[in-house]
Amino acid sequence: MSSGKNQYVVTRGDKWAVRGEGNERPTRVFDTQREAINFGRGIARNQESELRIQGRDSRFREAYSYGNDPYPPKG
């Protein structure tokens, strides 16, 4: 279970943005996806949440969890 807002790396025109879950406006906009991922990863680690990365085709291609996820999952 995460304790902070999940972070999303999303396209914004020809740029990339990091947006917190539930936020309408991006936290910050970058020229490259790599810059956005690095910034979003730092927030997700700090908040012990997830980072989800959108590809150019608008589909989410990767997700990283920095929360307190139990492994193996219970159930």
TrEMBL record:
Protein origin, superkingdom: Bacteria
Pfam families: DUF2188
Name of the protein in its database record: DUF2188 domain-containing protein
Species for this entry: Tabrizicola soli
